[in-house]
Write a structure and sequence with these properties.
Blueprint: H1 2-25, H2 36-43, H3 45-78, H4 84-90, H5 93-96, H6 99-110, H7 115-124, H8 134-158, H9 162-170, H10 175-204, H11 207-211, H12 218-229, H13 234-257, H14 282-311, E1 312-314, E2 323-324, H15 327-330, H16 333-366, H17 373-381, H18 388-400, H19 410-439, H20 443-451, H21 456-467, H22 469-485, H23 488-493, H24 502-510, H25 516-549
Antiparallel strand pairs: 1-2
Helix pairs in contact: 1-13, 1-17, 1-18, 2-13, 3-8, 3-10, 3-14, 6-8, 6-14, 8-10, 9-10, 10-13, 12-13, 14-25, 16-17, 16-19, 16-22, 16-24, 18-19, 19-22, 20-21, 22-25, 24-25
Length: 551
């Protein structure tokens, strides 16, 4: 029964909308099967250039994120620095701010007329195009997505068997040879798993290019064609299909190349084995401290820019705002209620759905003898490879086939669509957390409870759920956090401003110069709420781990 319910949910809200997009790109449901739309895509220079630009942005974002994350991971796991708490914070802060908000808040600092260029022009008469065109998209996405690589690589480095390193040293292996022949091969799957997630997220990002005025990428082209030409525009589905294929190819590499892959956020659930930290002296310690400080500055810069914008009365072509004000916050109260409520509603319901599905899936995959359990795990994990834009486009196409009697309920249908899209897209994160938590529970504990006369429900309630509490809480919070920062789904499925979540409301305010202060103030409120949520997550997981470890 449970397996049937989960299968129906995945088929209805994941497979069906994706199939609708694929069939529409092939002409099925319209003029009939044809490859003409695909040929039209590759025949036009505009779309070929957009495809190449999207690939370049995604690969460059992986390179930029790696440049930040790899040294940080090594410092966190192997060097003896008093930087544990700051490094954990650096792995969380970028994920709290949506990338399009970071793009908006970095423009007054790193933009063409920003603080940095004004100082450089006054001093040396030079300007840096850090936020212009695709350069800005790459910079923002590198800063925003590097935690995926950092957390995966930290977990991978902690899993390197110390006995192998000690054996190599006793056999005369030198540090450089030890690094390249043992540490790199063993940590590589963790790095590539994080890099693949960065590639997928950067490849499908919609809000950041639109905020920076970059439209020659696949995601903005899809959105602009749908909003301009309507839901029946065939080339929109072709572009979405191209995005889906490359995201799916990246996900396939994770699944088939790394059977024992390290999953994102695993460090919060299990610390891995303890490594003897290397004492650092002189220049290595100074270099590590410098890199941590530099990354901290880069990570905090969008927050500082957003805070300044939210309090600036006038800020144009000057190093600091000409005057400061709190009017953006004072005017915020009557406008922020509906978006905040909508975000809590959509994200909260999606998180509950994700946690329930993840617990059931974890049980089916790890504790049952279901024949298609591996297929269910792969199907649920495949949601990671489906861009939010593709999912929302499929839901729009599906809604067109609904009975006319539901037209009067279109606001409710739109809200349900956004909630289900959030739940499907964030399900892999909740599943990762619950599976890691369930793997850590010895089945003998539940068997002992059953042998003492406990029912299956009582054993579940008194044994499994308390021990899985950390994973359950982590899955719910991750699902909510990512849903709260998601933009592309809301931009396509939201048909009235009264239904808009915070992310979309912030984006709408940022589209005009007169509204950017209000948008920044709304962004600060949203980020403050997510920061408190993250702090609560950290405290809850710490309490659960301490309770599980016993006295």
């Amino acid at each position: 029964m449970l397996a049937t319910c989960v299968t129906v949910f995945l088929l209805l809200f994941l497979v069906w909308p994706v199939a609708v997009v694929v069939l529409a790109a092939l002409g099925i449901g319209g003029e009939g099967f044809t490859l003409g739309y695909l040929r039209s895509f590759f025949d036009q220079a505009l779309y070929r250039d957009a495809f190449l630009n999207s690939m370049r942005v995604a690969l460059s974002s992986v390179a930029g994120a790696s440049l930040i994350a790899v040294p940080l991971a090594w410092i966190a796991v192997r060097l003896q620095l008093r930087a544990g708490w700051p490094l954990q914070l650096l792995g969380i802060l970028p994920l709290i701010m949506p990338p399009f908000v970071a793009a908006f808040s970095l423009q007054p600092i790193l933009g063409n007329s920003g603080v940095l260029n004004l100082l450089l022009e006054r001093r040396w008469d030079i300007r840096l195009s850090l936020m212009e065109g695709t350069n800005g998209v790459i910079l923002v996405e590198s800063i925003h997505y590097f935690p995926f690589i950092l957390l995966n690589l930290m977990a991978a480095l902690r899993r390197v068997d110390l006995a192998m390193e000690e054996s190599a040293l006793t056999l005369g292996g030198r540090s450089a040879r030890l690094f390249w022949r043992i540490i790199v091969p063993l940590a590589l799957p963790g790095y590539l798993a994080g890099a693949a997630i960065v590639f997928i997220r950067a490849f499908e990002d919609l809000g950041t290019p639109l905020v920076l005025g970059v439209t020659n990428l696949l995601a903005p082209l899809t959105y602009l064609r749908v909003t301009t030409n309507g839901i029946d525009d065939a080339l929109s589905y072709v572009i979405a299909l191209i995005m889906l294929l490359f995201s799916a190819l990246t996900w396939w590499c994770i699944v088939h190349l790394f059977r024992d892959r390290v999953q994102a956020y695993m460090p919060y659930l299990q610390g891995g084995q303890a490594h003897p930290l290397q004492p650092v002296r002189n220049w290595p310690g100074a270099a590590a401290a410098f890199w941590i400080a530099a990354v901290a500055l880069v990570v905090l810069m969008p927050y500082l820019g957003l805070l300044a914008l939210s309090m600036a009365d006038i800020w144009s072509f000057s190093i600091l705002p000409d005057s400061w004000t709190f009017r953006h916050f004072s005017a915020l109260a009557p406008e922020a209620g509906d978006p905040l409520f909508n975000t809590l509603l959509y994200g909260g319901v999606a998180a509950i759905i994700d946690v329930v599905l993840a617990m059931v899936l974890a049980h089916l995959v790890l504790r049952s003898q279901l024949r298609w359990r591996r297929a269910l795990e792969l199907l649920a994990g495949a949601a990671l490879a489906v861009p939010g834009l593709v999912l929302a486009l499929g839901y729009l196409r599906m809604s067109r086939e609904m009975p006319l009697s539901l037209n009067a309920m279109s606001p409710l249908v739109s809200s349900v669509g956004m909630t289900m899209a959030y739940a499907v897209q964030q399900l892999p994160y909740a599943l990762m957390a619950c599976m890691v938590a369930l793997r850590a529970i010895d089945p003998a504990m539940e068997e002992a409870a059953a042998s003492l006369g406990s029912s299956r429900w009582r054993a579940l309630r008194r044994v499994r759920l308390p021990l899985m509490a950390g994973g359950i809480a982590l899955g719910a919070i991750l699902s909510f956090m990512v849903s709260a920062t998601e933009l592309s789904i809301a931009m396509l499925l939201c048909n009235a401003e009264e239904q808009a979540p915070l992310s979309y409301e912030i984006y709408l305010n940022m589209q005009s110069v007169s509204g950017r202060g209000a948008g920044a103030a709304l962004g600060m409120v949203a980020i403050a709420a997510l920061l408190m949520l993250t702090a609560g997550l950290h405290a809850l997981l710490k309490k659960v781990r301490n309770a599980a470890s016993g006295p």
